[in-house]
Amino acid sequence: MSTDWKEEVSKCSKCGKCQTVCPVFLETGDESSVSRGKISLAEALRDKQIVYTD
What we know:
Layout: H1 4-8, H2 23-28, H3 35-46
């Protein structure tokens, strides 16, 4: 797995401002479907709080 993503996930400040224009969030209201939710998942993977399996 490439390590470039580990630095990239730190760039998101998780402010939530992108939700106001995100068509997926506007339709579903589901945090895990938008960038902030995906960033949180990537951070948990990076910090070994969760483990990736196939």
